[in-house]
Design brief:
Two copies of one chain form a homodimer. Chain A has about 250 residues and is α/β, with parallel strands linked by helices. Chain A has one domain (about 1-85, about 120-245): Alpha/Beta hydrolase fold, catalytic domain (Rossmann fold, 3-Layer(aba) Sandwich), CATH 3.40.50.1820. Chain A is about 40% helix and about 25% strand. Chain A has seven helices and nine strands; from the N terminus they run ββββαβααβαβαβαβα. The first copy, chain A, has helices at about 50-65, 85-100, 110-135, 150-160, 175-180, 200-210, 230-245, and strands at about 1-10, 15-20, 25-30, 40-45, 70-75, 140-145, 165-170, 190-195, 215-220. Chain A has a nine-stranded mixed sheet with strand order 1-2-3-5-4-6-7-8-9, sandwiched between helices. In chain A, a hairpin with a 2-residue loop joins strand 2 (about 15-20) and strand 3 (about 25-30). In chain A, helix 2 crosses helix 3 (about 110-135) and helix 3 crosses helix 4. Chain A is globular, with a radius of gyration of 17 Å. The interface of A and B includes residues 214, 215 and 219 of A. Chains A, B: InterPro entries: AB_hydrolase_fold (IPR029058).
Amino acid sequence: MHFTSEHRLDDAVLEREFTLGEIPGILWTPGSASSSAPAPLILLGPPPLGLRKAYPRLVARARHAAADGFATATIELPGSGDRPRLPAAEQARADLRRAVAAGEPVGDGIVDALILPLVDKSVPEWQAALDALLSLPEIGGPVGYSGGVISIGTRLAVVEPRISAAVLFAGSFVPRAIIEEARRVTIPLHVLLQWDDEGNDRQTALDLFDAFGSKEKTLHANMGGHTGVPQFAGDAAAQFFTRHLK
Amino acid sequence: MHFTSEHRLDDAVLEREFTLGEIPGILWTPGSASSSAPAPLILLGPPPLGLRKAYPRLVARARHAAADGFATATIELPGSGDRPRLPAAEQARADLRRAVAAGEPVGDGIVDALILPLVDKSVPEWQAALDALLSLPEIGGPVGYSGGVISIGTRLAVVEPRISAAVLFAGSFVPRAIIEEARRVTIPLHVLLQWDDEGNDRQTALDLFDAFGSKEKTLHANMGGHTGVPQFAGDAAAQFFTRHLK
């Protein structure tokens, strides 16, 4: 992990860009320049837009988390931003656009080809990022995962024992295989669903929520479309992390 | 409205029992004995157990609300506690028990007979209670409705313009006619659903949530069975009222 830039957003948050091999990422740590006790960490799963486009939303979440005493970090997804495209996913995205334009249902084959290679490739990257982040003296204590592509968060919750709690955003296609994996998740979950999300299948989201094996799982459904998560829903997600990671 | 008893639970809450005609009720007001500024009001819809059996749960909600600066009040439902039974509902309850014991689905006819007379009779009673409560100098400002039988809360939200926001508990049978009425609800709603509630039809609850016409509506689904609403879900409902009634 190499830090490539560093600047203070204000007296409360330090932002550092880094690379992990070929993968760019950003780390935000709370605390003033003079004092920064080790902070628990929240991994911020980005949307598949690329970190540059998603930056305004990510930094808002990072500032909120820092105010609650959390460090946050994110890495570029495979195929996003300046990273090489994933050919299978690109093909699936073209098939998806064609199906949607023709008013056809989006078949399981398209969803699997779009999501599964992304999950397979990105989960080990998040685990490598976690190795590097947890070796920093300014990071300590339990780890949460928040947002991003819900299938990635689900797989991470299954395979990565260092993640203690997760806020998942039900806003992307979910392969049936991931719904099966969800039964093996046992950590506390807080799932956000935008009820009238035009680009999301509500029933699949409900099926996924139902499948999670966790004894504590909460679904928060709100109005406002895919990007319209209300402020109070963000606050409730932050309270979930404070309850579980502090 | 006649007060029949009065005692302080502690320095922060005054509990008074009252009767409104034949109907018993309880009013809790916040503030010390010496100071009690007019407080916004939350109507606590009771479960159909009778106020005496439901008292421990009601008083816990009243104390929580008082700490947030709210007065709360509840009245006995028609057919509950010491009030005369509703013959149609009693018959429907017997039919319901028979259907459940026989492993048969609970038909629309049973649900309608169980719930609709209760809604028709209790909603004007809540409105009369509201008239009386709002005439007290210690009650002022906006009114919320919380919990109880969700069909009663739904009808009240449609017909009673003095109710500004409602927390509804999706934990009882819902007639199809009420789902149609729900489309006319426009106030902010916070709906609680116990995901694995053994006595509740989850799909009907989701259909009802979908039907509400409100621009702001939130569904919080949690684990823990019918009576196992987690503490943090109660806290979130309290925050909803603070957002909307203060």
